[in-house]
Design brief:
Bound molecules: guanosine-5'-triphosphate, magnesium ion
Helix content: 40-55%
Mean pLDDT: 93
CATH superfamily of the domain at 1-128: P-loop containing nucleotide triphosphate hydrolases
CATH architecture of the domain at 1-128: 3-Layer(aba) Sandwich
Strand content: 5-15%
Order of helices and strands: EHEEHHHEHHEHEHHHEH
Radius of gyration: 19 Å
Length: 264
Amino acid sequence: MPYYIVIVGPAGSGKSYLTSALGEWLEDQQLSVLRLNMDPAAEWLPYSPDIDVREYVDARKVMKEYNLGPNGALIVSVDMLVNHIDKIKEELDSVRPNYVIIDSPGQLELFAFRTSGPLVLDQLVGGDRVASLFLLDATYVTSPSIYASMLMLLASVFVRLKKPLIPVLSKTDMVSRKHVEKLLSWSEDPLVFSEALSEETHRDIQLSMLAQNIVDLLENLGLSWIPIPVSSLTGAGLSEVYAALQRIFSGGEDFLTEEPSGRL
Ligand SMILES: Nc1nc2c(ncn2[C@@H]2O[C@H](COP(=O)(O)OP(=O)(O)OP(=O)(O)O)[C@@H](O)[C@H]2O)c(=O)[nH]1
Ligand SMILES: [Mg+2]
């Protein structure tokens, strides 16, 4: 059975580009990949999806038909997907790839925090092994407080999706090496993170304590919070992402899925 990789993250964080880059990387390792676009509102994708939910529900049509705004249309569209799950699953089962990469909808909160998003995902994955990649956009995480809020968002998404979750720092080719190193230093040492947060917030005691509280929360949830730096443009970090996925899927052993099939 395939392994499922669900790519989640805030709007514009690089989900679709990572779907594309990771898909190509896996195919380079002679693994077959099925790319599933789960965003009914996607206008353009940097890859050609093997399964596309827009063929079942198109948010643009829903918007016109029901006189809704973009967010309302996305909510209704994801709700409507529930009715098409059997067909989508049938499409999936007919291919039997090694990996299924699911590119999730742009509006994270409409997907993860409402009822139907996680429901659709659970029905798609069934009992197969699954891990999610949570994207932290390196161009966006520019201060300790943004980093803190992103880690809390990561915890919230984990609580909703209930899938093993790997934090990934996306778009690292767009920022300096120094910026990436600074970010990693916050991740690797709660004291450094705490000090940075304290400095940013002019020594606000409660906010300074937040760093340790967040680290404790993530630790208690069994989550790693040290992101893997990647670039979908250069391919940097993709092998580390693969290794982290393998650790989840197979307890560290690097083996193929049970029924390896040819390239798609
Ligand atoms: N330089 C660089 N740009 C990237 C990378 N990943 C994504 N981008 C750019 O970031 C923008 C958003 O990327 P997407 O992959 O569409 O992001 P997304 O999370 O799928 O966006 P939504 O689905 O709209 O929420 C695009 O303009 C990409 O060109 C990267 O690794 N490097
Ligand atoms: Mg996208």
